[in-house]
Design goal:
Length: 210
């Protein structure tokens, strides 16, 4: 049972429900192929049926961990840190990102954008979901837009989302893993006809790494 004091520290972002943390190769999007330290924060109510980390949804399953400890672990491995989830913006990211910045880290976030943006970010990967759309203020801040393609109707959603980001935002279409064999030919054809988009693959799964 989590104490009221601990709950208050989590609400303030001084502690965070840490699901896992690991040093690996970024598998997706603009920074694919580069080494980074991943911090996966528990808690998400967006509820994508194809989510491959559903165990992250319930924040209560993941121990509230002091931000200082998370930062201490991260800087042992890399100066590039990726904060992901779950949906990390469920929580206040101010303390975590300020602490990482003091250590000279470059900080990336992977988010659906469904919650208010907090924290200081060097790179924002916005991956919007139909179920719970991004807050308007995150669109102009996104460095890359990564839309997951599960069926052919998702191309229309992708274009709707692309219309909201800045001209400097890099646009990616990524096949949902379980449906990749069916959707990949459609994505390839779409990108060839609409070259403002790029193909993103979950290369870490092909490499069999976290």
């Amino acid at each position: 049972m989590i104490s009221e004091e601990t709950k208050e520290l989590v609400e303030k972002g001084v502690m965070l429900p840490l699901m896992e943390e690991f040093y690996t190769i970024q598998g997706e999007g603009f920074h694919k192929g580069t080494a980074a330290y991943f911090i996966r924060i528990g808690g998400c109510d967006v509820g994508c049926h194809w989510c491959d980390v559903k165990e992250s949804w319930n924040a209560d399953l993941h121990p509230p961990t002091p931000v200082g400890k998370i930062v201490e672990n991260a800087v042992k491995y890399s100066d590039t840190v990726v904060v992901t989830g779950g949906e990390p913006l469920t929580w206040d990211m101010t303390v975590l990102t300020n602490s990482l910045k003091k250590k000279g880290c470059k900080i990336h976030i992977e988010t659906s954008g469904a919650y208010d943006i907090t924290g200081i970010w060097d790179w924002i990967c916005l991956s919007p979901k139909k179920i719970k759309l991004p807050k308007p203020e995150i669109y102009p801040l996104a460095h890359e837009l990564k839309v997951i393609i599960f069926n052919k109707h998702d191309f229309k959603f992708a274009e709707e989302q692309a219309a909201k980001v800045s001209d400097h935002c890099i646009l990616y279409l990524q096949p949902e893993w379980s449906n990749r064999e069916k959707m990949m030919p459609l994505i390839v054809d779409y990108v060839m006809k609409n070259p403002k988009w790029k193909v993103s693959l979950q290369t870490h799964k092909y490499l069999n790494i976290p």
